[in-house]
Specification:
There is one protein chain. The chain contains 7 helices and 7 strands. It is an alpha/beta fold and 188 residues long. It has a single domain, classed as Rossmann fold (3-Layer(aba) Sandwich). Strands 4-3-2-1-5-6-7 form a 7-stranded parallel β-sheet, with helices on both faces. Strand 6, helix 5 and strand 7 form a beta-alpha-beta unit. Helix 1 packs parallel to helix 2. The longest helix has 16 residues. The relative contact order is 0.16. The C terminus is likely disordered.
């Protein structure tokens, strides 16, 4: 039985380094091992497909949420535990937010940045009180974090922005920041 669900933001591409695919596999297996469901964008391509396939192969629950117009472009994943088709991107993101207990960002492109930044903004505005963790094992998120620091230095963001997200350099630390370490012990 799924105790909770984590929304994973990640690329619809694999990236140039095989380390990203390996990371996606480890995330999927780790979620399933902890009895935590995956909520994600519903596509079968890139890291999105790898994470969802990894959760499923480990016996976990996957909810994919995809807007109708992207069903073919992102190659809708047809083997999910649950697939929700939305009318647009706004409904997709709202549904992802509503069904998740926390958010984990893996490497990705503009879509990943968009989803992650929306959660960050909602956290800043007090509309979401769920953890946001950037999994930064290889420094992928370092330029993004530097941009946030630059905004603070230039007076466009307060220092409290650092409290709105966590950047973790290992999967275990990311799971702990999402409150999943306790779920793993409870499952034993």
């Amino acid at each position: 039985m799924t105790r909770s669900a984590i929304c994973v933001f990640c690329g619809s591409r694999h990236g140039v380094d095989p380390v990203y695919r390996d990371l996606a596999v480890r995330v999927g297996h780790g979620l399933a091992a902890r009895g935590v469901g995956l909520v994600y964008g519903g596509g079968g391509l890139g890291l999105m497909g790898v994470v969802s396939d990894s959760v499923l192969e480990a016996g976990g629950h996957v909810t994919g949420i995809i807007p109708n117009f992207l069903r073919h472009a992102e190659r809708q994943h047809d083997q999910l535990s649950r697939l929700i088709v939305t009318s647009d991107m706004f409904e997709r993101k709202q549904t992802m937010f509503d069904l998740s207990d926390g958010f984990l960002a893996l490497p990705g492109g503009i879509g990943t940045l968009d989803e992650m930044l929306e959660v960050l903004t909602w956290r800043q505005l007090g509309q979401v009180n769920k953890p946001l963790v950037l999994l930064d094992e290889d420094g992928f998120w370092a330029p993004f974090i530097a941009a946030l620091e630059h905004a603070v230095e230039r007076g466009f963001a307060g220092e409290n922005i650092r409290e709105l997200y966590r950047a973790e350099h290992s999967l275990d630390a990311a799971f702990a920041a999402l409150g999943l370490a306790e779920a793993e012990r409870a499952a034993d």
